[in-house]
């Protein structure tokens, strides 16, 4: 009977030591959870950066291989047109003057200032 008590005491001490290392020792459970959160955040950041890299790689490929992308950029960013094309600019009518509202470039009688 006495042997069982010593064995039980040794097992309890071992359990206490293991629990101490689990909760407070190096690589404890709190540290592991913190590192797992950092890993998940880094994976999310990496996915976003990978999507950006893929988009940039596709754009580089288009610029190297296709004339359509170069032509589109020249038209939109530089305002270029092909030889023989005609450029038409559609300008909408200016809003009609409302009574009591000064038109741009006219004098306002109350303040004597030019309204831009």
Gross morphology is elongated
User: How many whole angstroms does the radius of gyration measure?
Assistant: 38 Å
Number of strands: 0
| Helix-strand topology string | HHH
Helix content: 55-70%
Mean pLDDT, all residues: 80
User: Regions with pLDDT < 50 over 5+ consecutive residues?
Assistant: 107-116
Number of helices: 3
Class derived from helix and strand content: mainly alpha
Percentage of residues in DSSP E strands:
under 5%
How would you characterize this protein structure?
By secondary structure, the protein is mainly α. The chain has three helices and no strands. It is elongated, with a radius of gyration of 38 Å. The chain starts with a helix and ends in a 38-residue tail after the last helix.
């Amino acid at each position: 009977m006495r042997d069982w008590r010593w064995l039980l005491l040794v097992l309890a001490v071992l359990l206490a030591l293991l629990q101490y290392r689990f909760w407070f020792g190096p690589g404890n459970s709190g540290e592991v959870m913190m590192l797992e959160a950092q890993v998940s955040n880094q994976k999310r950041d990496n996915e976003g950066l990978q999507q950006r890299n893929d988009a940039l790689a596709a754009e580089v490929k288009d610029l190297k291989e296709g004339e359509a992308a170069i032509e589109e950029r020249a038209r939109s960013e530089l305002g270029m047109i092909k030889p023989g094309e005609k450029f038409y600019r559609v300008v909408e009518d200016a809003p009609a003057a409302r009574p009591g509202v000064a038109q741009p470039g006219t004098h306002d009688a109350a303040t004597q200032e030019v309204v831009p």
